[in-house]
């Protein structure tokens, strides 16, 4: 069992990395379950579980900043249980979803922790140590390993209940708080971008974009279309503007204060 | 300076692009991956200019996020701009940032609907139907089909994007035209940023004032004033704090600690 637990932890780690990087499809339930099945000596069960899991998880894909239930870990656990513990396919499938949700909670931890790497990279850039920047990027894989190993190893070695107990031991307010922080943190990235695009006369366009999305229900593509038109018009009018007299009036003074 | 981006460099970008999201995080998402992917090219372009290299690296550590395959054309299109900035400095660095922002949002939308909602379900559907009864052909067919689109977009995105960017940049020589392009790109970038502030920053307030029938959630009250008021407020506050020179790390930990405290007192 120990050997299986180690083997499956490593496989789950590689698949989790593939899910975030490359996206060749190896980590999709259909293929992931097949791979686990092959490693445990029962490809056929793997494929059958995989195609059912694929249907269950079909709609759950990472879009934008949202973190979906972890189909990768769910698939590995479900297939392993079906083959190792001789569970029926149905029981294994019902195990997959709670494990996927538990793994998702840990993923939120991991993605928050990875934010720290970003700041190590900032410091490395300040020191002009560019190899360190590359190393920081690679370290993301290590965080993924920890997150996967915490769930997969005990689940295979001790059983799924142990994992569920482990997750419920974390105070729910801490989990909720991290989840909320995950929703707020993009604001830091956007705040930094605003300092990059800090052109005073163009500032209103930020609020136009915001208002179109908030009140007009515009999608990003819709706003992009509009902003292209606005940019062209802006260019036309500013090119054909007559040079005005240079005096600064009271309003200008107020606006620039 | 004659450092030029060669075909070999572009292939390297395609290869590095495969582990683009290794360091994905909530704050700046794919930023480190973006910097990592183009780092060899930046090093080459700024071979004799350590100060320029430092600035370029820092600039490319800014927030970036798009659909993973769609990063390829954005990388391709912005590389000629980096090349121009490094060789003759006639392009404003903020124009490159604005171009990145202006492209990442819309291309993410296109990429999500094209790959995740169209191509992926079709390929997976074919795979599932072939794998009936445990047939190995199913997973294999899925992998083959899907990766034609995956690898194709990754490779041609970078290579064709680079050609497109080079042709465009090559036409422009005068500084006044560059200024106009910079303004236009900034307008696009700011508007996309405004939309992303409204749609990607979320503060789910669960706090309820009053009891029984009179109960009103804080969220409802704030939505009555203006929806997305809090995301806008927080983003703008962060912007002001950074401008004042506050460290981003402090802001970050502040947000995490306040979020957990907020969850403990039942604000969220």
TrEMBL record, chain A:
InterPro entries the record matches: GatZ_KbaZ_carbometab, PTS_IIC_man
Cellular component, GO annotation: plasma membrane
Protein's cellular compartments: Cell membrane
Keyword Membrane: yes
TM segment ranges: 138-160, 180-199, 206-234
Key words of the record: Cell membrane, Membrane, Phosphotransferase system, Sugar transport, Transmembrane, Transmembrane helix, Transport
Membrane topology value: Multi-pass membrane protein
Superkingdom of origin: Bacteria
Pfam families (UniProt xref): EII-Sor
A GO biological process held by the record: phosphoenolpyruvate-dependent sugar phosphotransferase system
Main location: membrane
PANTHER family documented for this protein: N-ACETYLGALACTOSAMINE PERMEASE II COMPONENT-RELATED (PTHR32502), N-ACETYLGALACTOSAMINE PERMEASE IIC COMPONENT 1 (PTHR32502:SF8)
Name under which the protein is recorded: PTS sugar transporter subunit IIC
UniProtKB/TrEMBL annotation, chain B:
InterPro entries reported for this sequence: GatZ_KbaZ_carbometab, PTS_IID_man
Organism: Paratissierella segnis
Gene Ontology biological process: phosphoenolpyruvate-dependent sugar phosphotransferase system
Signal peptide (from-to): none
Protein name: PTS system mannose/fructose/sorbose family transporter subunit IID
Family matches, as PANTHER family: N-ACETYLGALACTOSAMINE PERMEASE II COMPONENT-RELATED (PTHR32502), TRANSPORT PROTEIN, PTS SYSTEM (PTHR32502:SF23)
GO cellular component terms listed in the entry, alphabetical order: plasma membrane
Entry annotated with the keyword Metal-binding: no
Parts of the chain that traverse the membrane: 113-130, 136-156, 187-209, 221-239, 251-267
Pfam families given in the database record: EIID-AGA
Classification of source organism: Bacteria, Bacillati, Bacillota, Tissierellia, Tissierellales
Keywords assigned by UniProt, alphabetized: Membrane, Transmembrane, Transmembrane helix
């Amino acid at each position: 069992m120990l050997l299986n637990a180690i083997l499956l932890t490593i496989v789950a780690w590689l698949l989790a990395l593939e899910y975030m990087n490359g996206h060749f499809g190896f980590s999709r339930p259909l293929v992931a379950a097949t791979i686990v099945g092959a490693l445990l000596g029962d490809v056929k069960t793997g494929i059958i579980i995989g195609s059912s899991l694929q249907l269950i998880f079909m709609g759950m894909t990472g879009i934008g900043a949202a973190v979906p239930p972890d189909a990768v870990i769910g698939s590995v656990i479900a297939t392993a249980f079906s083959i190792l513990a001789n569970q029926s396919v149905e029981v294994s499938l019902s195990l997959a979803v709670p494990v996927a949700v538990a793994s998702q909670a840990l993923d939120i931890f991991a993605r928050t922790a990875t934010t720290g790497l970003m700041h190590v990279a900032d410091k490395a850039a300040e020191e002009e140590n560019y190899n360190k920047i590359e190393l920081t990027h690679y370290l993301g894989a290590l965080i993924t390993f920890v997150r996967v190993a915490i769930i997969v190893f005990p689940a295979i070695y001790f059983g799924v209940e142990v994992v569920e107990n482990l997750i419920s031991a974390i105070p729910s307010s801490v989990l909720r708080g991290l989840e909320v922080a995950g929703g707020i943190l993009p604001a830091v990235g956007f705040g930094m971008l605003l300092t990059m695009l800090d052109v005073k006369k163009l500032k209103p366009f930020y609020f136009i974009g915001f208002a179109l999305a908030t009140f007009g229900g515009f999608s990003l593509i819709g706003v992009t279309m509009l902003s292209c038109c606005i940019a062209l018009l802006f260019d036309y009018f500013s090119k054909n503007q007559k040079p005005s007299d240079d005096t600064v009036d009271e309003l200008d003074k107020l606006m620039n204060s | 300076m004659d450092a030029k981006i060669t075909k070999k460099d572009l292939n390297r970008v395609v290869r590095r692009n495969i582990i683009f999201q290794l360091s994905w995080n909530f704050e700046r998402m794919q930023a480190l991956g973006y910097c990592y992917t183009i780092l060899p090219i930046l090093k080459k372009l700024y071979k004799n200019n350590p100060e320029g290299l430092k600035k370029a690296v820092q600039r490319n550590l800014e927030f970036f996020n798009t659909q993973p395959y769609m990063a390829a054309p954005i990388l391709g299109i912005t590389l000629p701009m980096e090349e121009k900035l490094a060789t003759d400095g006639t392009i404003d660095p903020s124009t490159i940032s604005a171009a990145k922002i202006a492209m990442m949002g819309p291309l993410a939308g296109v990429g999500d609907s094209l790959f995740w909602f169209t191509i992926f379900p079709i390929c997976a559907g074919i795979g599932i139907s072939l794998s009936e009864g445990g047939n190995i052909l199913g997973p294999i067919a899925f992998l083959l089909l899907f990766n034609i689109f995956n690898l194709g977009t990754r490779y041609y995105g970078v290579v064709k994007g680079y050609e497109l960017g080079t042709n465009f940049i090559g036409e422009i020589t005068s500084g006044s035209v560059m200024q106009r392009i910079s303004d236009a790109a900034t307008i696009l970038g700011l508007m996309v940023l405004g939309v992303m502030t409204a749609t990607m920053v979320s503060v789910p307030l669960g706090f309820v004032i009053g009891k029984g029938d009179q109960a009103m959630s804080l969220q409802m009250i704030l939505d009555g004033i203006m929806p997305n008021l809090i995301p806008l407020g927080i983003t703008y506050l962060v912007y002001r704090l950074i401008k004042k020179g506050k460290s981003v790390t402090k802001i970050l930990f502040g947000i995490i600690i306040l979020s957990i405290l907020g969850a403990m007192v039942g604000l969220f």
